[in-house]
Design brief:
- The chain has 72 residues and is of the alpha+beta class.
- The protein contains 3 helices and 2 strands; from the N terminus they run H-H-E-E-H.
- The protein has one domain.
- The longest helix has 19 residues.
- It is extended.
- The N and C termini lie far apart (40 Å).
């Protein structure tokens, strides 16, 4: 089973509406430990988990713009 059709619906909605919905702008902040037993916040690494559809669209746009940018 493929999610291609679902992703296409989301991208078309973003294109026709000219905006992304509020839910797509939010991410989840997670702190990954740098050591085995972190005791302070300095011993953790914060990572923002952004929604996947936004990351997929950003990758598509970057790949399509890459040839144009490289020829400048």
């Amino acid at each position: 089973m493929s999610i291609k059709d679902d992703i296409l619906v989301i991208f078309n909605q973003m294109h026709f509406d000219g905006r992304i919905i509020e839910r797509q702008k939010h991410g989840i902040m997670v702190c990954l430990p740098k050591t085995d037993n972190p005791k302070t916040t300095a011993e953790s690494r914060p990572i923002n988990l952004v929604k996947r559809d936004y990351k997929i669209l950003a990758r598509i746009i970057a790949n399509r713009l890459r040839p144009t940018i490289l020829t400048c």
